[in-house]
Write a structure and sequence with these properties.
With 80 residues, the chain is of the alpha+beta class. The chain is built from 4 helices and 2 strands; from the N terminus they run H-H-H-H-E-E.
């Protein structure tokens, strides 16, 4: 992992909501969580959650996959 990638990842986690999202996804493991489950667990609006998931995704810390009609987010364990 390059120094710039490390800096980007750590900067993404330096925000409280993003750190909480990432921790929930790590605990969820390979099963992952839907945005609805994350929003409910964190008590944040869907728009706020969407913004933070996008930031974590750009940092390479989370991945998303469409499963049937739902998006499932997972921690990118390979990136850690």
């Amino acid at each position: 992992m390059e120094e710039q990638d490390v800096t980007r990842s750590l900067a993404a986690l330096a925000q409280t909501h993003r750190l909480r999202v990432f921790r929930l996804l790590v605990v969820a493991g390979e099963q992952g969580l839907t945005p609805g489950a994350l929003a409910e667990a964190l008590g944040v609006p869907a728009a706020t959650l969407s913004f933070h998931l996008k930031e974590l995704s750009h940092a390479g810390l989370v991945s998303q996959e469409r499963v049937s009609r739902h998006l499932v987010y997972r921690a990118a364990f390979g990136h850690m």
